[in-house]
Fold each of these.
Amino acid sequence: EAQVTQNPRYLITVTGKKLTVTCSQNMNHEYMSWYRQDPGLGLRQIYYSMNVEVTDKGDVPEGYKVSRKEKRNFPLILESPSPNQTSLYFCASSAATAYEQYFGPGTRLTVT
Amino acid sequence: GESVGLHLPTLSVQEGDNSIINCAYSNSASDYFIWYKQESGKGPQFIIDIRSNMDKRQGQRVTVLLNKTVKHLSLQIAATQPGDSAVYFCAVFSGGYQKVTFGTGTKLQVIP
């Protein structure tokens, strides 16, 4: 089954404790992206990657890091999480562009 | 930059009636538009898209209308069913396939 998986689905952590949210897709997609979704705001892009070893900032990259060492994986790293990063995070992938992205199920992160 | 808004945060519709969900955008150079459906606890799911050289596009029970003059697009769902209950939001592409702005979403509630 073609899908985008994220782990963990739920995470509660404390300020400053480094964490990684994994994202994996099995569709051999080149384009992958991370978004955060907050109440009253639309999805906002954090980072995206056009291919292996190619990443670029989205609209809200501050406080986040990503890496794309393999085509299927695109982890999101929070080196020092803060409460304002409490949000619902989505990973997405598509064949080549931001068009027709397939979204993962989301990771709900709470930073206390 | 692009701003995207929806006219109503919540829409309640009787089962069997037609639903209309609206989206307004600000950038007249926007050239590609997508409607997504997001069910509770899930990631967004592609419904239908339209390019700026079109005014209307139809899918299965869904129609998207684009009015470039007033920078407005709408999603029409025919014979709304309980399974249509979800949050619907538009995505607007401006200046290429990498830059996308998402609307905040309209929650559609179907009354049995």
Amino acid sequence: DAGVIQSPRHEVTEMGQEVTLRCKPISGHDYLFWYRQTMMRGLELLIYFNNNVPIDDSGMPEDRFSAKMPNASFSTLKIQPSEPRDSAVYFCASSRTPQGRNEQFFGPGTRLTVL
Amino acid sequence: DQQVKQNSPSLSVQEGRISILNCDYTNSMFDYFLWYKKYPAEGPTFLISISSIKDKNEDGRFTVFLNKSAKHLSLHIVPSQPGDSAVYFCAASDPGGFKTIFGAGTRLFVKA
């Protein structure tokens, strides 16, 4: 199994531009999570899906952030417009069971830099 | 408000010695705890977990201790090896299991 796949690995963009991050979960996993890692706040859960349906998006910082999961093998996290404070590493993770009852498998992350 | 706190941003230990990483939580509803390990340029990987019905769980060189009355858990690595140098995240979830809260992480340096 290839594990969780994220693209791109690195993204540098200018303030105001739209950014789209992509994730392919492990086949058979029915939960998908988006996290953001910063020095100040550590690893924050942004949103998670169960069977392609968004369950909890309370961690999404503001309306500039949106996430979709059109099918079981693909999800996107979009930031529009992007701001310098969005610079962080964004991780996607998937699991078979409700999180907390089993391990989550993380992708390698996308390092986003907004200039 | 951080519900899971790792108050030590970093820890340095000599190879062969014990590493102790600490974690405190505030939500008494948390009933399942996990530790993840993260190397640079990689995603976190699961290391070890413990249910609130236990106070200790051991897996090879790694042992997690849980003190529910103090709302504190710790990860012990014995003996520490240079390959253990990484960022360690403590995480906790409630009985619903639908949300896992992570701490900010502790960077461990194991010196050869």
